[in-house]
């Protein structure tokens, strides 16, 4: 049978009110009284109702995190950075995977509100839910921080990577190696992919290499099967005589798919084909060859978002803010200069 606060009161010899004050730490209690109640709580293995405490204290010490996927290692590292900060402050997290679905993202956000979380962090929120004002509305009910995602004219707190600069670096690096036929590999429904595609087109036009543009959409870019989907799609491209000499992929799991496609086509990386990824997840440093990629400061993104959220939980400020972190091109072994 579940132990109740009444059981603790009876065993300790104090009133329910006194036990409640010890649990919630919201009124002064004598040290000897607190010690006795805490001993009984341990003895009976009593677990207070967090939601009930939240209604009393207006704090539940919980934070909701919504991610579009748990299978791309980018997101778990960001979550680890968030948790490293929140755990030290006594917070517990609810982790929700929306599977890159707008409706699921909304459902999870509403569910977190019903659980009286103290704040919400959304990683790479769906563009439609940013543009339609959904998250601006949520931010008026509970402290909210968005990590990356569509942010133009949006009145919310943001921690962002400078993905545009990172994409420019990647494209300029490939061009500096002599590549003129560069293909762009992306997924569907992502502001991040849209931004990188825009950069891809702008950089090619700037250098007057716009005659060869190839955008390859592999569908949802963060699923467990994205590597295989990318491999199969790129393999078809490589069967063409006028195939690219280089690929710029929107993330590292797509870049891995490109590597596998080249292997199937018996093309050497970097001897025949150069490949650049994005994110710098652990996989990019474990492949052969190791993948040149753009580091997105995943752990630091999470830390900054958690610190920003805590500030807004404590101060209840209504003013939105944003932090932009720099990216860095990590040059490894998957690219080669051509003549």
UniProtKB/TrEMBL annotation:
Xref: InterPro entries: HTH_LacI, LacI/GalR-like_sensor, Lambda_DNA-bd_dom_sf, Peripla_BP_I
PROSITE patterns xref list: HTH_LACI_2
Identification of the protein by name: Catabolite control protein A
Residue ranges occupied by any HTH lacI-type domain in the UniProt entry: 3-57
Gene: ccpA_1
Originating organism: Clostridium liquoris
Keywords: DNA-binding, Transcription, Transcription regulation
Gene Ontology terms for molecular function: DNA-binding transcription factor activity; transcription cis-regulatory region binding
PANTHER family xrefs: HTH-TYPE TRANSCRIPTIONAL REGULATOR GALS, LACI-RELATED TRANSCRIPTIONAL REPRESSOR
UniProt keyword Kinase present: no
């Amino acid at each position: 049978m579940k132990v109740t606060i009444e059981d603790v009161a009876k065993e300790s010899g104090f009133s329910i009110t006194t036990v409640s004050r010890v649990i919630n730490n919201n009124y002064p209690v004598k040290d000897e009284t607190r010690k006795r109640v805490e001993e009984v709580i341990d003895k009976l293995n009593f677990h207070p109702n967090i939601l009930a405490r939240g209604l009393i204290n207006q704090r539940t010490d919980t934070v909701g995190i919504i991610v579009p996927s748990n299978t791309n290692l980018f997101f778990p590292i960001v979550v680890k950075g968030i948790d490293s900060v929140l755990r030290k402050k006594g917070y517990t997290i609810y982790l929700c995977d929306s599977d890159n679905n707008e409706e699921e993202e909304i459902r999870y956000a509403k569910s977190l509100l019903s659980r009286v979380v103290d704040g919400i962090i959304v990683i790479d929120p769906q563009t439609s839910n940013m543009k339609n004002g959904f998250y601006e509305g949520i931010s008026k009910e509970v402290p909210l921080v968005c990590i990356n995602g569509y942010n133009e004219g949006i009145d919310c707190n943001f921690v962002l990577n400078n993905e545009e600069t990172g994409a420019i670096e990647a494209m300029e690096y490939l061009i500096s190696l002599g590549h003129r036929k560069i293909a762009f590999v992306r997924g569907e429904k992502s502001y991040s992919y849209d931004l990188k595609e825009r950069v891809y087109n702008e950089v090619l036009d700037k250098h007057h290499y716009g005659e060869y543009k190839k955008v390859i959409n592999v569908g949802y870019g963060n699923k467990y099967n994205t590597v295989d989907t990318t491999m199969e799609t790129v393999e078809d491209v490589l069967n063409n005589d006028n195939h690219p000499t280089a690929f710029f992929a929107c993330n590292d799991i797509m870049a891995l798919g490109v590597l596998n496609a080249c292997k199937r086509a018996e093309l050497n990386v970097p001897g025949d084909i150069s490949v650049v990824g994005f994110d710098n997840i652990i996989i990019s440093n474990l492949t052969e060859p190791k993948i040149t990629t753009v580091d997105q400061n995943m752990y630091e993104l999470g830390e900054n978002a958690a610190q920003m959220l805590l500030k807004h939980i404590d101060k209840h400020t209504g003013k939105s803010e944003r932090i932009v972190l720099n990216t860095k091109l990590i040059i490894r072994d998957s690219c080669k200069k051509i003549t």
